[in-house]
Design brief:
Strand content: under 5%
Oligomer: single chain
Largest sheet: none
Number of helices: 11
Number of strands: 0
Distance between the termini: 47 Å
Number of domains: 1
Order of helices and strands: HHHHHHHHHHH
Structural class: mainly alpha
Helix content: over 70%
Shape: globular
Radius of gyration: 17 Å
Length: about 260
């Protein structure tokens, strides 16, 4: 890749990712943490990572990474369940620690098993269904905590850092590990901490993650058959349609 293209990709990473996170944060504050969790189900960091992998490492690399991302999403679904359960027993520090441990353990297990693209997609959907059924209901009358002024900048910095680190280290990590680490649930955790309604946020994340899974199913399939632009356009439109349907059907769960 030429120096000009590399520089352009770098600046896109610095602009696109924090912009997506800022928009998601404003939506959360306008319509509540449940809808924010649903919006966080979109691949706000994983999609930019995938696009830049396709540009910098090639479509075949990004298609392979899509399988890893689906496996990482399965680990994220399990970690959402862990957070919802742990939040009933301990504070946000303990819940966050338990969630990250669950995510890493899930990644460690799944990285040792070989999955096809279709197999990884089925695993994700099954995990999300189990997590959704196992997540406890939000306790009535739970108060929200007003987020501090540094909340939005922190989310933008963390998300952008994830994209920069993964795309920079992609050639050393390989496609599977690059994909596995991209769905780390940073945004969902931050939402849960400040909303103090972790089950609603996590349920929103689980509902939204079905579209996340569809996005990477299409990416993994399309990059070997279509152009980069056509693949990500199709994946994005499909994810938006599916997540819109999920939101309309699951409003009662996202309050």
């Amino acid at each position: 890749m030429s120096g000009a293209v590399a520089a352009g990709a770098f600046w896109l990473k610095l602009i696109v990712t924090p912009l997506l996170i800022a928009i998601a944060t404003l939506v959360t504050r306008r319509w509540g943490p449940g809808v924010g969790g649903w919006l966080a189900g979109f691949p706000l960091t994983s999609a930019p990572v995938s696009v830049f992998l396709a540009i910098e490492q090639g479509p075949a690399f990004a298609a392979g990474a899509a399988v890893g991302t689906l496996l990482g999403l399965a680990a994220m679904g399990f970690s959402c369940l862990v957070y919802g359960r742990a939040a009933r027993l301990t504070g946000w520090i303990g819940s966050t620690a338990a969630t990250l441990v669950a995510f890493v353990v899930g990644l460690a297990i799944l990285s040792r098993i070989s999955f096809s693209l279709a197999g990884a997609f089925v695993l994700v959907c099954a995990t999300l269904v189990v997590a959704g059924l196992g997540l406890p209901a939000t306790a009535p009358g739970t108060a929200r905590v007003r987020p501090p002024a540094w909340d939005v900048p922190l989310r933008m910095i963390v998300a952008t850092s994830v994209v920069l680190i993964l795309t920079t280290a992609a050639s050393r990590l390989g496609p599977t590990l690059s994909g596995l680490f991209s769905p780390i649930p940073v945004f969902l955790l931050v939402l849960s901490v400040f909303a103090q309604r972790s089950e609603g946020v996590m349920m929103g994340g689980i509902v939204g993650s079905f579209a996340f899974a569809l996005f990477f199913l299409i990416v993994g399939f399309g990059l070997t058959r279509l152009s980069i632009g056509a693949t990500y356009t199709l994946a994005s439109v499909s994810a938006i349609v599916v997540n819109g349907l999920a939101l309309s059907l699951g409003r009662a769960l996202l309050r």
